[in-house]
Each structure stands twice: as C-alpha cells, then as structure tokens.
C-alpha cells in the first residue's frame, strides 16, 4: 500500500487497525495466540517505509475475544509484544497500542467510538486528530476516523 504524498503532508500521526491491516483477519474467529498471528503481506515493508514519515504511529484495535473470555489480556499482550518485536526488526515502530475488550458496541473505547483516539491525544498532547490518518479495512474503521475528524484510507 502507498499513502499519497499530499496526505502525508497533511498528517503527522498515523492510526492503524490491527486485524485486517497489520495481520490477516480471521473472519468469524479471533487471533488468540502468536501461533495464529500472520502479518498481512506487505505490512512489514509498509511500516518500515512509513515509520520515519509520521511523528506518532498507533494501533487501535477492538479485541472482543478477550471480553468474551476466549483469550486473556495476558495472551493479547504476548501477541502484541511479539508483533512489536517483529515490526522493530523490520525497521518500523509503533508508539502505543490501544485496545478495547468491550463486548458492548456502545462502550466509548470500542471503535467506531472515538475513545482510543481521545486517549492517544490525552497521552500524547501534540497529537491533533485533524492532522491524523486512520488506515483500516472495515466500515467501523472508516466511521472511527469520521467520528474523530481524521483522514481515512482503506488498506488494500
């Protein structure tokens, strides 16, 4: 995937969905262990290429499988730790991972609600959501970007 240069010039913060962007999405299932995790083709090159172009890079991900008791927060954090190590070895970086384990769609932290972006802006005061780009593969990612006042690109 290539981000158009005019969009890079407008945006200094990158938000990424996890399942379907960083890793292969398992329709109707959840990635519950590192053994089930597979990077999307081209993602490691993508993150290596764009890490120096953005001031901040965040992953924002709904992880309802934890809320449903199909996996633990510890299992999720192990996946994220190994994912971050692999991204770092590929020359990329992720500044923080925000996740929602909520089962209820009305939870403010669950996409498409803006809670994860608002938390990032609170923890990183130089983040401006109107100068941010969200890359996702689902309608909820597009709506998240709209609800936050961000630019949006569909992962392809």
Describe the model.
This protein is 35% helix and 16% strand. The longest helix is centred in the middle third of the chain and has 17 residues, at 73-89. Strands 3-2-1-4-5 form a 5-stranded parallel sheet. It has helices spanning 5-10, 43-50, 64-67, 73-89, 115-123, 139-148; strands spanning 13-16, 56-62, 96-100, 132-136, 151-154. The protein is built from 6 helices and 5 strands, in the order αβαβααβαβαβ. It has a single domain, classed as Rossmann fold (3-Layer(aba) Sandwich), CATH 3.40.50.1000. The chain is of the alpha/beta class and 156 residues long.
Q: What is the CATH architecture assignment?
A: 3-Layer(aba) Sandwich
Relative strand content: 15-25%
The SSE string, one letter per element, is HEHEHHEHEHE
What is the approximate shape?
globular
CATH class: Alpha Beta
Q: Structural class, please? A: alpha/beta
> Could you tell me the radius of gyration in angstroms?
14 Å
Strand and helix layout:
Layout: H1 5-10, E1 13-16, H2 43-50, E2 56-62, H3 64-67, H4 73-89, E3 96-100, H5 115-123, E4 132-136, H6 139-148, E5 151-154
């Amino acid at each position: 995937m290539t981000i158009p240069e005019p969009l890079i010039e407008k945006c200094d913060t990158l938000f990424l969905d996890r399942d379907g962007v960083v890793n292969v999405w398992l329709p109707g299932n959840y990635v519950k262990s590192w053994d089930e995790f597979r990077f999307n083709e081209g993602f490691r090159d993508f993150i290596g290429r764009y890490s120096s172009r953005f001031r901040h890079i965040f992953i924002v991900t709904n992880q309802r499988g934890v809320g449903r008791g199909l996996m633990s927060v510890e299992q999720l954090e192990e996946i994220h730790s190994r994912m971050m190590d692999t991204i770092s070895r590929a020359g990329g970086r992720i500044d923080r991972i925000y996740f929602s384990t909520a089962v209820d769609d009305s939870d403010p932290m669950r996409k498409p609600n803006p809670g994860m972006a608002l938390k990032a802006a609170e923890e990183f005061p130089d983040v401006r959501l109107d100068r941010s780009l969200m890359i996702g593969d689902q309608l909820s990612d597009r709506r998240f970007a709209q609800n936050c006042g961000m630019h949006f690109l569909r992962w392809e």
